[in-house]
Amino acid sequence: MKCTVCRGPAVMDVRRHNANFCAEHFLKLCRDQVAKAIKEHRMLEPTDRALVAVSGGKDSLAVWDILVGLGYDADGLYLGLGIGDYSDASGEMARRFAADQGLKLLEVDLPADHGFDIPTGAKAAKRVPCSACGLSKRHLFDEAARTHGYDVVVTGHNLDDEAAVLFGNVLHWQTEYLGRQLPVLPERHGFPRKVKPLVRLGEREMAAYCVLRGIDYIVEECPMAAGNKHLGYKEALNLIEAASPGTKHDFYFGFLARASDRFTPEAEAEQDLLLRCARCGAPTTTELCAFCRLAERASGGRA
Ligand code: AMP
Ligand code: FES
Ligand code: ZN
Ligand code: ZN
Fold first, then answer.
1. Which residues, in sequence order, are bridge partners of residue 125?
2. Does some domain include residue 165?
3. What is the pLDDT of residues 186-210, one digit of tens each?
4. Cα Rg for the chain, rounded, in angstroms?
């Protein structure tokens, strides 16, 4: 196997691009794809202060590394969600990367700062853990960006994640979500801008990026996510992709180019808010925001 660019020995194939790469040209491909996504979707300005949400996994550590390499001013944010050993190990990965690279990492600890962990919160609110977790993460990202004056929140969602979410939303025709499934959500109603610079890269590529860059990441998936629908959608798409490389890319980017606009009105209607949460001041449609309601239920009304 030879590198498509330099004809040297290749270490990685990317079937979607029908190409093979040596380490140097593979790393360049990753940086180029991120730069292209940023430019095409106008994700970041050179002067932005970015807050990268880092979970300790491959995607978020890779996106942080790439953004810093491209010259962006990017600090990290790690959320301790109180998911036992998994949270301890993932926090350690995020801290170690930040220390090795001399980067600034902010931390929020859900149990210490808000009095509950994800397993308890989910149980009390009768939600599946990933739903309580997703809403808590979004809330804590927004709050940290607001409090510390960042222009934009960056997450490590990659092409596999976005294609799987799109697939699920299409299967159930969740049209209000389809209108919001974009690589950039502009700042509005007191929410910071949110961007996903890895939308042009897949999971396998991000793992290879970390290995080639010597970045240590937590390999295990969250133990609470086992058996969730999202993982099933990913597996189904992987089968299709194996038989027909490039399908995920066409599905997701075809949606952005030809269909996502059609769902904007429904997403906008949902956003016609907005009050301020009586407890934390976050933008919300109800008196207390969803996060504060979750915190109240988790503490049995004591919060
Ligand atoms: P997930 O929801 O686990 O698929 O993660 C999606 C993205 O959310 C990751 O790529 C990170 O950018 C961010 N994220 C997930 N978990 C955490 C965490 N504990 N702390 C900070 N960011 C996180
Ligand atoms: Fe959220 Fe596991 S990371 S439930
Ligand atoms: Zn090469
Ligand atoms: Zn609130």
1. none
2. yes
3. 998 889 999 999 999 999 999 999 9
4. 19
For ligand 2, say whether the CB of 130 is within 6 Å of any of its atoms: yes
Q: Is the CB of 155 under 6 A from ligand 1?
A: yes
Instruction: Please identify every residue whose CB atom is under 5 Å from ligand 4, which is an ion.
Output: 277, 279-280, 282, 289, 292
What's CA 226's distance to the chain center, in Å? 18
As given in the structure block, the two tokens for residue 242 are 């194996």
Phi, psi of 154 (to 5 degrees): -105, 130
Helix (H) or strand (E) holding 153: strand 152-154
Ligand lying nearest the CA atom of residue 114: 4
From the CA of 140, the nearest ligand is 1
Residue 277 lies in a domain: no
For a ligand 1 pocket test, name from 34, 43, 54 the mutation site with the most ligand atoms within 8 angstroms of its C-beta. Answer: 54
Over residues 31-60, the pLDDT tens digits come to 999 999 999 999 999 999 999 999 999 999
**Ligand 2 atom at minimum distance from 223 CA:** 2
Specify the 3-state DSSP secondary structure of 73: strand
Residue 79 sits in a domain whose CATH number is 3.40.50.620
> Is 52 contained in some domain?
yes
Residue 177 sits in which domain range?
A: 40-260
- Answer whether residue 240 is part of any domain: yes
Task: For residue range 247-278, list pLDDT tens digits in order.
Answer: 999 999 999 999 999 998 877 766 666 789 99
Total domain count, the chain: 1
Q: Which atom of ligand 2 is nearest to the CA of 55?
A: 3
